[in-house]
Amino acid sequence: MIKVLTVGPLEENCVIVVDEESKEAVVVDPGAEGDRIIKSLENLTLRYIIATHGHLDHVGQVGYLKKVYDVPFVMNEKDLFLINNDIFPGFAQMIGAYPCPQIDIKIKEGDVIEFGRFSMKVIETPGHTPGSVCFYDEKNQFVITGDTLFKGSIGRTDLPGGDNSQMEQSLKKLMELPDDTDVIPGHGDTTKIGIEKKSNPYITGVFRLKW
């Protein structure tokens, strides 16, 4: 079971993946509304707190959740410079972010996060940030893409650490996944890899990754 909670003023998608048999769960990108996230974890055993990248609207409640759950915080260390970086003046206050703790488990390309019957493979997808990653579960046919790939769009590359050429390579990597793979993005509606191949203007080349 996958729960998508759209939280905070930037309407960020916090993703809770639950193994209904063991009642084990992981939280991906707890950006805002920590109490709501915790309520959604009632009667579940949280195994990991995970981030697709280090922007505050995706890690803003990691510190709050760590006060409640004694579980590891998992992220790519290339985004360490971002986890307490306001980027914009007053951004942390606007989204109610807590100070983000250091990473407990540093992940990289090819690592696998296992819990219950789930096995999510780490795909490094720099471009939006240097340490952006996606989490791909081949068996259950879904990929959590953070701010790399959206329905009909992609993550911006004009923030600190962003890179157009890296984004292009990351998108090519994601397009190699099976067409029927469900895409759960960091903002907006879910989609499928096959749909984005055909209709996403950044994938089809209409905008050629330019803004």
UniProtKB/TrEMBL annotation:
SMART domains: Lactamase_B (SM00849)
Keyword Cytoplasm: no
Highest taxon of the lineage: Bacteria
Keywords: Hydrolase, Metal-binding, Zinc
Domain Metallo-beta-lactamase, residue spans: 11-187
Pfam families registered for this protein in UniProt: Lactamase_B
Iron among keywords: no
Cofactor annotation: Zn(2+)
PANTHER family tied to this protein: HYDROXYACYLGLUTATHIONE HYDROLASE GLOC (PTHR46233:SF3)
This protein's name: MBL fold metallo-hydrolase
Organism: Persephonella atlantica
